[in-house]
Each structure stands twice: as C-alpha cells, then as structure tokens.
Amino acid sequence: MSENYPVMIAGARSSGTLPVTSPYDGSSIGSVEIASADTIEMALQTANRLYRDRDGWLSGEQRIAVLEKTAVIMRERFEYLAIEAAREGGKPLIDSRVEITRAIDGVRNCAELLRNETGQEIAMGVNPASNGRLAFTHHEPIGVVVAISAFNHPLNLTVHQVGPAVASGCPVIIKPASDTPLSCMRFISILREAGLPEEWAQACVVDENTTAEKLACDSRVAFLSFIGSARVGWMLRSKLAPGTRCALEHGGVAPVILADDADIDDAMPLIAKAGFYHAGQVCVSVQRVYAPADKAEQIASRIADLGNAMAVGDPTSESTDIGPLIRSTEVQRVDTWVKQAVSDGARLLSGGSPISETCYPATVLLDPPDKSTISQNEIFGPVICVYSCDDMEQAMKRANALPYSFQAAVFTKNIDTAMWAYKRLDAAAVMVNDHTAFRVDWMPFAGRRVSGYGTGGIPYTYRDMTVEKLLVIRSSEI
After folding, report:
1. Which of 161, 266, 270, 360 could form a disulfide with 435 if both were Cys (CB 3.0 to 4.6 A apart)?
2. Which of 22, 27, 20 is nearest to 5 (CA)?
3. Are strands 144-148 and 133-141 parallel, antiparallel or unpaired?
4. For the packed helices 156-168 and 60-76, what is the interaxial angle rounded to 10 degrees?
5. Vertex 380, ends 377 and 386: CA angle to 5°?
6. Which are the contacts of 26, defined by CB distance < 8 A and separation ≥ 6?
7. DSSP strand pairing (133-141 vs 121-122)
8. pLDDT tens profile 95-152
9. What's the CA gap between 35 and 435, in Å, rounded?
C-alpha cells in the first residue's frame, strides 16, 4: 500500500515531493510533499497566532478528549500501524508491534498528565511580609513547540514529542526524519481525525537543511525538541533565539559491566537482544561489554551463538529478528569499522560481512583495541564488542573513557557491587541485572555530556513544555 501526504501546514503549497522507499528492498511505499522556507514561515505564523490568542486556547477537557480518542483510533489500527512502521523504518514486525503498543500507552499517558500534573501552593502568612496573602502556581503552555525527530522509532518518537505538546496546550510543528516521515504523518492525521484543529499540530519535511535551521531557530519558537545526531543538535542549540528552551537526545555507547559473580545464563539473552534488535540502531543499544578476563572469550562466544540464531531479512516477516539498516551507506560504514577493528587486532567471532546491500548480520568482536574507530564511537549497527578486563576498577575506567553518557548496566548478585557501579558509572541511568535498552516511557530518559541535554520521558517533556506561573492574592480576609 502506498500513502501520499501533502504538506500538513494550513494553506501551504508543496515545493516538491519526497519519495519514501523501504530500507529493505528499495520498493516505493509512499511520498510526502516538501515544505519550502516560505511554507515554514506560514507554519510559524499560524502557530504563533494560536499561542498569542489566549482566549482561543484549547481547554484541558478538549485536549483530553482528543488524546483519548487518538489512543482508541490507534488501537483499532494497531496491526496496520505496526506493519507500515516496519516497512518504513526496517524494525522487525515483532519489535514494531512493541513500538505501537508503547505509542498507544504514551498517548494515554499524555492525557493522564492533565489530571495529575498540577501547580503548588507557596507558603504565605508565615512572616510579616507574607501576611494576608495566598499564593499558588498554575501550569501554562510555554509557547510554540518545534520538534525534529529521528528515524529509528518513527511513531513512538513522534508521540513523545507531539503528544506532550498537545497535552500542555502548545501549538506544535514537527519535522520527521526524511527516511521515515510516513508514521509521523499518520499520527498527525489521527490527531486531526480525533478532533484536534489542524493548525495545532503541523508537520512537514523540508527542502534543505537551512530551512530546518530556520524552523528550529526562529525567535517565535519557545521550545525545541530534537532527536538525532549530536553534531546537528549541538549546532542548533548554539543558534537558538534568546529564551528558547530545548531538549536534545543524541546517541550513546551503552556500556555493560559483568562482575565476577554475574549470572551469565540470565545476562546473555538480554545483552544479545538489546545489542542486535533493530539492527543496533537504538541510542541505548548494548555496544560495549566489559567482562572478567578469564570469562570474556566464553561470554563473547555465547553472545555470538545467540546472534547467529537470529534471522536477518524482511522486517515485515514474522520470523525476522534483525532487519535492514536504514541506508545502504550505513551497511558500508559498519562493515568498514568492523574490518578496521579486525585489522587492528580484534577477534571476529560472528558476522563481519554484509548479507546484502541493506542487511548486516549480528556481529561480535572480542577485544577490539581502544584506538579502533569502533571502540571510540557509537556503532549504530548490529555489533557488540566484548572487552577483557582484569578487575572492576579497570572495567569502570574503560566504561567511562568516552565523552558519551546515556544508559549503562551492571550484572552482579552483590548489592554492594551494584551500588558501587551505580555510584561510579558515568550515565544518566544504570540498570542492575538488565540490559541498557530497558525503558518505559514515563521514566526519565536523558543523554548527558555529548549524548544530550535535558530530560526526555513523557512527563518530563510535558513539564518542559509548560511554565509554572505564580499568582499572589492579597486580601484582609486571608
């Protein structure tokens, strides 16, 4: 089935058409019309007008109704959304179904926030200066929200960026990744079907990078939500208009430390799944495993065996475990990094060569040198590197050696070891006896250092998209 979307900006005209193709076989699956700089200006004018007209703001009751209806429509179209997301992004159907489940739950979470996120009373009447006064805060929408999204979870990331904007009452403009715009357009269409006036959620792909920069850095933008490369995210942050707040979510290197007493039988399936699912194209995929030197080869071999048992191929097939990388150039890049690591002295235990122009197998490397590119950067492919360590101190030093800080993990049966690692790992979140890719969408999810800025997770994004406004009442009757 082919879907073709216009520019989802009120009154706008297209400046061209972007074809959307399957990353697995290159087949055409749809198209979206492209927005020019003039069209972006129309979107910003519309969003800013809505925000400035405070009498026209959507009520909490209206926003809840839209979000609840959106969740119902998504549930009715569950399998369709999952299959189309798999076709578009290459994530295997079994995992795309998980993504759709999360997305529906995320929409419900957005609606719940309106009932549960409130202001607070500020203490008054506690000294002469505050006598005769009552004070409390109330949440208001921050203003125009611009979201720039990534390809790897095309529906759920859209929910994370657009859903809280709708819940908070902010007009939102989203630019999805050009590789995977269809899932985003579907979600915006469903919001409108559920009753959201179309001007309150606008969406488009753009004609060039300078147009995207204009969208993000305009002075009318109150909040920028960016998910993507660190290079682009930090560049945009440096150019934001004064007063614009932002949240940036980039990549990580997801270190896992296995202590001597780790339950290897329990850990191996978790690590393999988290490293290889969606072909490793997840910002918290397991990429680096630090193991006791006398067990590292055995651990690497077991991960390799699990990876070898994973079927690679068509993401819409029920039997596929690992789908394609998003572009053939990414297959070439990953293969270059792997071969360089082997040339540098790493042992290749599985994989190591492309299966096709679009697919790469589950690959395990043992002890790639620290100088290798693959040891220095986010892999973003189905590759797990296992490193031999003499002790926990060495493992910790190596885990913290790179300028990335996102999610990390430690496997141990000892609570003191777990707490020792939690205290020392340079990470925003530490999982104990679980993989680095664990996430539920209401928990804080944050990259630190090069890996990002601010805190994601639906409630946290909602708070970022509101301002806490103080009211002080003076009365002799208080």
Report:
1. 270
2. 20
3. unpaired
4. 160
5. 65
6. 358
7. antiparallel
8. 999 999 999 999 999 999 999 999 999 999 999 999 999 999 999 999 999 999 999 9
9. 40
Which domains does the chain carry? 3-250+451-471 (3.40.605.10), 255-432 (3.40.309.10)
Rg over CA atoms, the chain: 24
Name 315's Cβ contacts closer than 8 Å, sequence gap at least 6.
Answer: 24, 86, 87, 89, 90, 91, 92, 93, 96, 323, 324
Helix (H, G, I), strand (E, B) or coil at 62: helix
Is residue 321 within 8 Å of 311, Cβ to Cβ?
yes
Q: Give bridge partners of residue 403 from the DSSP assignment.
A: none
**pLDDT tens digit string along 441-468?**
999 999 999 999 999 999 999 999 999 9
pLDDT digits (tens, 9 = 90+) for 200-245: 999 999 988 999 999 999 999 999 999 999 999 999 999 999 999 9
Q: Is the pLDDT of residue 1 over 80?
A: no
**Rounded distance, CA 377 to CA 281, Å?**
13
Non-local CB neighbours of 318 within 8 Å, separated by 6+ positions: 93, 94
Grouping H, G, I as helix, E, B as strand and the rest as coil, residue 306 is: helix
Instruction: Tell me which amino acid residue 450 is.
Output: V
DSSP label at residue 35: E
Distances in Å between the Cα of 161 and the Cα atoms of 51, 188, 457 are: 18, 12, 9
> 385-388, long-range: CB within 8 Å, 24+ apart, which pairs?
385/287, 385/288, 385/289, 385/341, 385/346, 386/289, 386/291, 386/296, 386/299, 386/300, 386/303, 387/288, 387/289, 387/290, 387/291, 387/296, 388/291, 388/292, 388/293, 388/296, 388/297
